[in-house]
């Protein structure tokens, strides 16, 4: 291994502190210089010759010339060769050999000088010429080292090599020769000054040599610095290669070692003297050390702090070369003080040159470099120093109301508008805890806050508050309420970030109190243009709540102000206020959920804002609050056993501020969501709490009974899932069940009413519905109706238990005696209490075709069909049946409710057949109702194609009225239709529904034997007369004439008519009666009608003709004026009848 030469490991990795095992330091070169005693009269190898040390001194002049000759070979490569004009050489030059022989010579010379020093020999003792030659040697070395500035800047950047001395690049060896000789010169001078007794002058010479060595290294560092962008300075070092770092380290150890022996200045004194020369206008050098020629530097302050940072890190190396990533024993308070003073000095310069007011062009980019470096020094390498923090604070407080201080990159780069209070506080904590690789994402102010937080986190102590008081005084003094009032959103955000950083790391209560007092009040906010600013202020105050919660502090002193603000905000209607309430609720949720026993006055946050927020917010917006209140209830119940005051106070607040609003929340209905669950569970919680502690419930005007009745029987509850879930939860709680049974006399009846309501208004099958069905089936009231085991089992197994229930009621009533029916009817009517009021509240125009809407109408139709005798009370105009039919099928035409009429069409037959079960003939009101029903629904149940009047369709719901009804009731219907609609209204025109009735009759007749013979018999008996009467009275072109002919044709072709003589005779008689009435007074129409009959029914014509002939004969006999005309027309018929 060559002696005295550095062995390069390439560029320095910032995180790799291990020294090369072949390096000078690890080969103990420094240790040998400082400590080891070499053997005397040893033989040394010099320029390939082995000589005693005395011979080297005797022939020193010759060897100096040899050294100079070799160095000149290297100097040829100081300039970058022009392409195609490489230095001429006859043979390949081994540049390392050149460098090695020079260094070996100097190394051996140094060793010999050190050896003779021990015996108090001097070079003068060897000979006068030797001392002169030795001075020549030093001059030669210094001349060569003085040419460092001639080396191109690119050499400092690209000369390093990972292969070390195996490289044959001339630039590499030229550059490293400077490093080699600088170290050898320094150590030779040290040994010389330590060898002879010219102490004062020699020490000054040594200081100058060390000064020059450090100046050269700073020169190299400056050349490197100018090539590095500010953003990369965190990852780059001032060392062009590992050899430069090693040289810095050895010079540092050498200088500090000599300082301890009082033989020269301390390392930092050398360094500071050089760095001061970068600021000639600020500091006049008083040092006796020489001035040096350093290149111009645009950012001298940044460079100096960057350099000091890296040189401070070298103090992590112990004397043996092991790095510990923390100050080693080499770093004393004196060294810390000296380096710190220099940084303070530089920061003051920086501030005076525009850093304070932002006048520097790239002030924030520069601060982004400076602050992380100072951060590491202040928090990891130096003792507490408030002055650094104060100086950095001077760079920001004047510019705090500027947006560029906000973070624009990284995970926290979202705008302050989008950040929640949790985000703001988490960013503060994350900033303090973050790792170095996240530094590039921070703004300059963010980096300052990180430094401030870390510094206070490490050095804040309640017992020793000196550091904190100094920082607090400097920061607090810069703010006032008037100043913050004028701040923009950006300024407020920066202020908040600053104070929350202080609060997280120091006296939380004091800092938060100061911050809140300085910030403008959100209650007095009225200017819409500042909405975002006041939103941010509110977020900061909520972050204070989170911080209090994290620290487990009591909210007693601050809760009232938050509740007061929330009450005010909840009264505003704008979007910003709504957002502010959402943030408040989110923070409150965190606070309440993390509370252990509500012993920190959490109850004080519940106030009037809850009522207004739940009232005015959309159902899908209140889920967070209602779920939070539910969990609070659960936690209070868990705390009951421990009897804590906090849970008692919280329950009182819930009764005071939540219970009444929960009663009203259930009026909302949004079937598309699960909004109903939380309010319902809250209702259950309040009911159970009222059962447990009725006195507290009564205090706030509530009771378990009133709550139960409200949530099961109130008609304002539109979402029946609320009643279903509530009732299920109450019935599953034994304590509540027992309490309510004692307090409510008709508890079972109320349960049945609620069950009926749940089944009619909800068609879905779920576990709650199944539970309620099973519970109801065990009640004695239900068992009295389901009086057989079969009925009970069918009821329990039915997927439509409500339909089955109504059918069983109808079946049960038929088995009762007349005197039992009245009591039975009254009981059953109680189960359908207010049916007319709540049954239709879910149906509207938009959902009329849904499954649920039809299910509701189907249930209502079943009630009317099966239970009409139960609902109907004679001589009571507002009996349940009439009221229900009016509501579901005969709604007022103004306002129009077409959706109800649309659904009623589908249960029309159930309504009509339900009325059949009553004594219609004895009650004119029922007859009127039937007429109104047909008048309203005939146009809807019989549809005619616009393009073809003969194409029509009769709805099944109308057909079933005639298919399933008893003959007498069918006859009554047909009689009503004929009497009310097959009539002449005026101007010889029929009723507007006559045409539809004729189509209905055609449909019944043409159906053949689908309907019974009684239907055709009733048509002939009660309808035909009106039909023929209208025929005689309408004008010639009226459509009824053709409909009448079609009617006769359809009847004549009907199978029942052909097979039944009685029907034929009945029709003959009715036709003749109509003709007999009009043949004399309206002979033209009469004979036209008979003529039409002749084409349809010859048998009927043969029945009519003799009677017409007789009338004509009587007219002639009585010599009536129209006798001749009648006789003429009679002759016309004769040919048709024969």
UniProtKB/TrEMBL annotation:
One of its GO terms (cellular component) is nuclear replication fork. It comes from the Eukaryota. Residues 138-584 form the Protein MMS22-like N-terminal domain. It comes from Trichomalopsis sarcophagae. GO terms for biological process: chromatin organization; double-strand break repair via homologous recombination; replication fork processing. Its main location: nucleus. Residues 772-1134 form the MMS22-like C-terminal domain. Pfam families: MMS22L_C, MMS22L_N. Belongs to the MMS22 family. MMS22L subfamily. Keywords: Chromatin regulator, Chromosome, DNA damage, DNA repair, Nucleus. It is found in: Chromosome; Nucleus. This is Protein MMS22-like. The keyword DNA repair applies.
């Amino acid at each position: 291994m060559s002696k005295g030469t550095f062995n390069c490991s390439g560029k320095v990795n910032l995180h790799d502190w291990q020294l090369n095992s072949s390096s000078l330091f690890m080969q103990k070169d420094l240790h040998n210089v400082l400590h080891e005693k070499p053997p005397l009269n040893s033989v040394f190898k010099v320029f390939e010759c082995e000589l005693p040390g005395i011979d080297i001194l005797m022939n020193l002049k010759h060897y100096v010339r040899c050294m100079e000759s070799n160095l000149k070979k290297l100097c040829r490569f100081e300039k970058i060769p022009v392409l195609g004009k490489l230095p001429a050489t006859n043979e390949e030059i081994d540049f390392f050999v050149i460098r090695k022989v020079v260094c070996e010579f100097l190394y051996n010379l140094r060793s010999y000088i050190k050896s003779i020093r021990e015996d108090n020999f001097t070079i003068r003792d060897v000979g006068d010429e030797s001392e002169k030659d030795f001075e020549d040697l030093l001059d030669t070395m210094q001349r060569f080292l003085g040419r460092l500035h001639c080396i191109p800047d690119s050499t400092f950047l690209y000369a390093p090599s990972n292969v070390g001395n195996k490289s044959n690049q001339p630039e590499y060896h030229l550059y490293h020769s400077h490093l080699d000789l600088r170290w050898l010169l320094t150590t030779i001078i040290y040994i010389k000054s330590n060898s002879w007794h010219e102490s004062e002058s020699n020490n000054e010479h040594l200081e100058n040599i060390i000064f020059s060595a450090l100046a050269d290294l700073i020169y190299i560092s400056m050349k490197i610095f100018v090539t590095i962008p500010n953003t990369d300075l965190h990852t780059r070092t001032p060392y062009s290669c590992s050899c430069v770092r090693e040289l810095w380290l050895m010079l540092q150890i050498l200088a500090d070692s000599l300082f301890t022996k009082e033989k020269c200045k301390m390392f930092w004194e050398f360094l500071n003297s050089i760095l001061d020369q970068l600021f000639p206008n600020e500091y006049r050098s008083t040092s006796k050390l020489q001035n040096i020629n350093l290149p111009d530097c645009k950012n001298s302050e940044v460079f100096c702090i960057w350099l000091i940072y890296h040189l401070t890190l070298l103090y992590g190396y112990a004397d043996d070369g092991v790095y510990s990533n923390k100050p080693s024993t080499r770093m004393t308070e004196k060294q810390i003080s000296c380096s710190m003073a220099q940084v303070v000095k530089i920061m003051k310069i920086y501030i005076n040159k525009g850093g304070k007011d932002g006048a520097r062009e790239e002030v924030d980019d520069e601060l982004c470099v400076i602050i992380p470096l100072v951060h590491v020094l202040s928090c990891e390498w130096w003792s507490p120093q408030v002055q650094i923090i104060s100086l950095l604070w001077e760079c920001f407080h004047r510019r705090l109301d500027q947006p560029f201080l906000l973070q624009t990159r990284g995970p926290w780069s979202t705008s302050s508008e989008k950040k929640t209070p949790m985000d703001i506080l988490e960013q503060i904590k994350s900033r303090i805890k973050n790792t170095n690789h996240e530094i590039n994402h921070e703004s300059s102010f963010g980096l300052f806050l990180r430094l401030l937080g870390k510094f206070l986190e490490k050095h804040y102590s309640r017992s020793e508050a000196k550091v904190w008081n100094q920082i607090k005084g400097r920061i607090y003094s810069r703010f006032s309420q008037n100043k913050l009032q004028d701040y923009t959103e950006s300024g407020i955000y920066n202020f908040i970030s600053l104070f929350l950083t202080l609060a997280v790391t120091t006296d939380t209560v004091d800092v938060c109190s100061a911050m809140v007092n300085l910030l403008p009040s959100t209650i007095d906010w009225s200017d819409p243009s500042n909405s975002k600013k006041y939103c941010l202020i509110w977020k900061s105050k909520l972050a204070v709540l989170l911080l209090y919660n994290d620290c487990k502090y009591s909210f007693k002193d601050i809760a009232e102000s938050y509740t007061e603000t929330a009450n005010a905000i909840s009264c505003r209607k704008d979007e910003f206020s709504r957002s502010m309430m959402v943030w408040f609720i989110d923070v409150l949720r965190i606070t309440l959920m993390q509370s252990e026993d509500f012993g920190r006055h959490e109850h004080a946050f519940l106030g009037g804002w809850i009522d207004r927020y739940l009232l005015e917010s959309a159902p899908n917006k209140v889920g967070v609050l209602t779920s939070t209140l539910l969990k609070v209830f659960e936690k209070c119940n868990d705390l009951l056993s421990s009897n804590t005051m906090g849970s008692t106070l919280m329950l009182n607040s819930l009764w005071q501020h939540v219970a009444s609003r929960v009663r009203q929340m259930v009026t909302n209905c949004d079937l598309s969501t699960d909004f109903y669950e939380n309010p319902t569970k809250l209702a259950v919680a309040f009911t159970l709490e009222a059962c447990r502690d009725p006195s507290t419930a009564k205090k706030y005007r509530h009771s378990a009974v009133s709550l139960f009745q409200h949530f099961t029987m109130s008609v304002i509850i539109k979402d029946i899932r609320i009643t279903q879930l509530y009732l299920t939860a109450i019935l599953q709680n034994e304590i509540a069940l027992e309490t309510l049974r004692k307090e409510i006399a008709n508890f079972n009846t109320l349960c049945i009413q609620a069950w009926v309501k749940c089944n009619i208004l909800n068609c879905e099958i779920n576990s709650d519905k199944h539970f309620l069905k099973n519970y109801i089936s065990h009640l004695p009231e239900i068992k009295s109706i389901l009086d057989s085991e079969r009925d009970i089992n069918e009821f329990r197994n039915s997927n439509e238990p409500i339909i089955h229930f109504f059918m069983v009621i109808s079946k049960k009533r038929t088995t009762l005696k007349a005197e039992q029916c009245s009591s039975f009817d009254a009981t059953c009517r109680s189960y359908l209490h207010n049916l007319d009021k709540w049954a239709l509240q879910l149906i509207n125009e938009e959902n009329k075709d849904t499954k649920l809407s039809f299910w509701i109408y189907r249930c209502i139709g079943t009630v009317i069909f099966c239970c009409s005798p139960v609902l109907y009370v004679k001589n009571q105009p507002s009996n349940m049946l009439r009221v229900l039919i009016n509501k579901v099928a005969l709604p007022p035409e103004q306002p129009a409710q077409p959706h109800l009429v649309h659904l009623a069409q589908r249960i029309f037959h159930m309504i009509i057949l339900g009325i059949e079960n009553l004594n219609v003939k004895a009650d004119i009101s029922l007859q009127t109702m039937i007429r109104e029903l047909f008048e309203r629904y005939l146009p809807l149940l019989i549809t005619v194609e616009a393009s073809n009047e003969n194409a029509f369709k009769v709805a099944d719901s109308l057909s079933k009225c005639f298919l399933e009804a008893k003959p007498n009731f069918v006859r009554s219907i047909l009689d009503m239709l004929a009497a009310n609609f097959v009539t002449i209204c005026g101007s010889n025109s029929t009723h507007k529904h006559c045409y539809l009735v004729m189509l209905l009759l055609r449909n019944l007749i043409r159906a053949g034997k689908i309907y019974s013979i009684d239907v055709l018999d009733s048509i002939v008996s009660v309808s035909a007369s009106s039909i023929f009467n209208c025929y005689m009275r309408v004008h010639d072109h009226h459509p009824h004439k053709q409909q009448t002919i079609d009617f006769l044709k359809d009847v004549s072709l009907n199978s029942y008519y052909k097979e039944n003589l009685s029907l034929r005779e009945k029709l003959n008689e009715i036709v003749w009666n109509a003709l007999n009435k009009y043949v004399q007074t309206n002979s033209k129409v009469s004979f036209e009608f008979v003529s039409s009959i002749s084409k349809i029914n010859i048998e009927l014509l043969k029945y009519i003709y003799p009677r017409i002939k007789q009338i004509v004969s009587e007219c002639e006999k009585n010599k009536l004026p129209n006798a001749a005309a009648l006789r003429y027309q009679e002759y016309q018929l004769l040919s048709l009848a024969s």
